[in-house]
Design goal:
With 193 residues, this protein is an all-alpha fold. It folds into two domains: 1-67, no CATH class; 82-191, no CATH class. 76% of the residues lie in helices and 0% in strands. It has ten helices and no strands. The protein is flat.
Length: 193
């Protein structure tokens, strides 16, 4: 019944995809990244209701003033920073442990046991690539666009994955399509949600 569970996460993603356009951007993102003061106040009122949010707005303005001279680091600069090594180690350990979760899907796709570890390694590389790529484009496009696009891609890929798994007994090459769809799903998840 794993395919029902996988479909359920697709349903949740579809619901989020439908409602996401009705939510405003994050107020700190609007103020700190875009410099849109009016948009920030409008988003705070839309998210939190009517009220006086000058204290929160002033806190964000102070944060903006503090970070004004701070250089935004790219991915390689962050990786060279020794202060992030504990967090990076924890994240890598978590990513590596998640690789064991996909073994059932790969067995259902009727892949040979000897190829499953290599496919799991490909999943890890896909996760790492998507996280790296997302961190470099999030400031350009914003969270809303990445979330919306990510959920849309995930829903489409889940439909294609389910179809390829259903047809994998009839067509041998569909097994490999299933693996490709799993890679694409992980990349879409890493870039979006």
């Amino acid at each position: 019944m794993w395919n029902v569970l996988l479909s359920f996460s697709g349903l949740v993603a579809l619901i989020q995809l439908l409602f996401l356009p009705f939510f405003p951007e994050s107020p700190p993102y609007l103020l700190l990244q875009k410099g849109d003061k009016a948009g920030c106040m409008k988003a705070m009122k839309q998210l939190w209701g009517e009220g006086n949010y000058h204290t929160e707005f002033d806190d964000m303005m102070k944060e903006k003033a503090v970070t004004k001279g701070t250089k935004i680091m790219n991915v390689l600069e962050v990786l060279k920073e020794p202060s992030v090594y504990p967090q990076l180690s924890t994240m890598l350990l978590l990513l590596l442990s998640l690789q064991l979760c996909g073994l059932k899907i790969f067995r259902t796709a009727n892949l040979r046991e000897s190829t499953i570890p290599y496919v799991s390694l490909g999943v890890a590389i896909s996760e790492l690539a998507s996280v790296t790529f997302c961190s470099s484009i999030i400031d350009r496009f914003g969270r809303r666009v990445l979330l919306w696009g990510g959920y849309l891609l995930m829903a489409l890929i889940l439909v294609l994955l389910e179809t390829s798994l259903l047809l994998s007994d009839q067509f041998l090459w569909m097994r490999y399509c299933s693996v490709i769809f799993i890679f694409l799903f992980i990349i879409a998840y890493g870039i979006g949600p």
